Amino acid sequence: MNRLILGNCLDTLVRLPDKSVDLVVTDPPYGIGVAKNGHIWDSKFAPKKWDNAIPPKIYFDEMLRVSKRQVIWGGNHFTHYLPPSRCWLVWWKNDGLPCGTFADCELAWTSFDKPAQVFNSRWRGFVRDSKEPRVGHPTQKALEVMKWCIASFSKPGDTILDPFLGSGTTAVAAKILGRRYIGIEQDKEYVAMARHRLRHANDNHANDNRRKA
Q1: d(C-alpha 104, C-alpha 77), whole Å
Q2: How many CA atoms lie less than 13 Å away from 70 in the CB half-sphere?
Q3: CA angle (165 as vertex; 50, 186 as ends), nearest 5
């Protein structure tokens, strides 16, 4: 079952049975207004208001209810919603680069009882270790980061849910790694981006592997 759903994710989450999804991997809005200006670094995009505030607690309660395990990026913005965890993930993206006005790393809360983990992947301006193209979403995650999450915390055939799908990076990573995916996104423009990326996911992955060979 691979599905992209256009709409507010809460409408879908409340209809899902308890623990019906193997793993949630998601990157909810942080409430810092990053989408409002229409540009970030070298990227331009349509200004949006979705990042003006973080989602209400009920969204997180439902994510935890419907899934067996969770990886939630931006977890440091949602600590008042989530239980304590010792397995925080760190995406270190400033490796060898000058310090700037943006964060050197991003943090993900997880539900796992494991040691904290760090993944290095440079992602600043034009300097990116992940070579997938930017698609016009202001907070597009590096594909290699989402592949790392899914490969580390799920197995082939598992169902991966991203209730805040954005441009579809989680679903693309799940498809490449042989997982099933459910992606929910309320913005038509972003759903179109995700559909396009999914159509070409395996082709682009094969091209990346050939370039690395």
Answers
A1: 16
A2: 26
A3: 50
The DSSP-derived string for 136-177 is S-TTPPPHHHHHHHHHHH--TT-EEEESS-TTSHHHHHHHHT
> pLDDT of 132-166, one tens digit each?
787 888 889 999 999 999 999 999 999 999 999 99
What residue type is assigned to position 172 of the chain?
V
Helix, strand, coil share (%) of the chain residues, nearest 5: 30, 25, 50
User: Is 28:55 a contact under the CB 8 Å cutoff?
Assistant: yes
Q: Are the C-beta atoms of 169 and 123 separated by less than 8 Å? A: no
Residue 99 belongs to domain spanning = 3-212
Closest CA to 72 of 39, 20, 30, 13: 30
CATH number for the domain harbouring residue 117? 3.40.50.150
CB 120 within 8 A of CB 95: yes
- How far apart are the C-alpha atoms of 127 and 80, rounded to whole Å? 34
pTM: 0.89
Element (H, E) at 180: strand 180-185
What total of structural domains would you count in the chain? 1
